[in-house]
Predict the structure.
Amino acid sequence: MTDRGPVLEMRDLRYAYNSGVEALRGVSLAIRAGERVGLVGPNGAGKSTLLLHTNGLLRGKGEVAVCSTRLARKNLVEARRKVGLLFQDPDDQLFLPTVREDVAFGPLAHGEPHEEVSRRVDAVLEHLGLSPLAERPPHELSVGQKRAVALATVLVLDPALLVLDEPSANLDPRARRQLVAMLKDLEPALLLASHDMELVLSLCDRVLLMDQGLIVADGPAMELLGDEILMEEHGLEVPWSLR
């Protein structure tokens, strides 16, 4: 992909829930092709709300642009192809009888030819080591396997940006290691929100720190996550590997 600008840009993004709680209070950021960015902060900082704005699932005040095109109602379908959003609970993304059908659903819904979709599904399943699970019902899989299948459902659309919300939640150590290995080998830009600081450190070169609906720090992952005073000030802890 040619670098014609950020794959994601937000300018003065603001969002308040019906209760009146301001979840985002003027967020601005830019993520370029190939960047791997961690999003950290205490509970209630606005991280998940921000992620839901990346492809228009929530729409607040301000501007969100995907691959230099401002998000609007008329282009949400195309934006959701370019931004692959992986929810914290994989069951929110898996609803068909087999793994293969779930992975094929997105491109088929976009009207792509069945033969081409079948080829791409096979390629993604092979790349993620999921081929043996292709005909299995998703509800029979482990949490780690479900998360890998959910990842396949977004990768098959060849997104420019992969957005992950707490991807290591509820994974045992082996499944977590497998997830890290999968994510390290991917080409799209990455925006990863997590409380797992070691995961962020292992996958991301840059970190955004959010608190109270604002980005309060933006810098190199090792530098920012290793700043004990900054991390403690915002209710976080320095990863063990940096102590």
Remarks:
- Residues 114-127 form the longest helix (14 residues).
- The mean pLDDT is 93.
- The domain at 8-242 is CATH 3.40.50.300 (Rossmann fold).
